[in-house]
Amino acid sequence: MRLRQLVIATSEMDLLADSICDLFELKRTFSDPELIVFGLQNVLIPLGDTFLELVTPVKENTSAERFLRKRGGDGGYMVIVDSVDLEKERKRLETVEMDIVWHENRNTDGIHGQSLHLHPKQVGGAILSIDNMNPPSSWLWAGSEWEENINKSLVSHLSGVNICSPHPDNLLSNWEKALGKKRSIDGTSIDLAGSNINFVMNTESQSEHVSAFQIHTVKKPYIEKRAVSRGFFTNNNIQLGGVDFILME
Q1: Separation of CA 109 from chain center
Q2: What is the domain range of residue 194?
């Protein structure tokens, strides 16, 4: 199991996508027409074989619209992990009484993609989706031609996500149960293949939310200079779409 896609809900999808792509020298790859079932439009941006997704509500009273209203602006909305055996995960979730609120099961262009969305109130902090692809190297949510749009000149992949809470230990326990994974030795994260989910203290409010995305790079000083020149560097962090982008070397 590994982190595969992180999602930002935004009211200005095109503007945010342009800003992210410009800063990190990335390219848009796909917009999924099937998301209209959730009242959403989206765009996918590949970082190697991991993805940033931006979603924006186009219908009233959608969960994303309520999220934006509650947050008072853009923010980290969803965490998607890639699993090896989705049926095994589904059975495990039944045994721990975690509710599945949506099961996507789609066959397109020779790719079989599935996802299990867990009940957000049972997990906390973000919508969690456990997904599976056949063939495993594919990623149907980004279409079938996303590899043509990969650019690793500045950043290579998503390597982690931070979720903050006034009670991070309790939130971590929920995610252990949801993912079927034990916490790390230091008791602050869940380690996945080549990535991690970190649980940090929210000292500013009672909110539980995604606070930061971790991106791997070997050009941290250069990217930070670009962020400063574009007005995206605040409090020693790159801030876009309501989340911090933490550069990992």
Answers
A1: 24
A2: 150-248
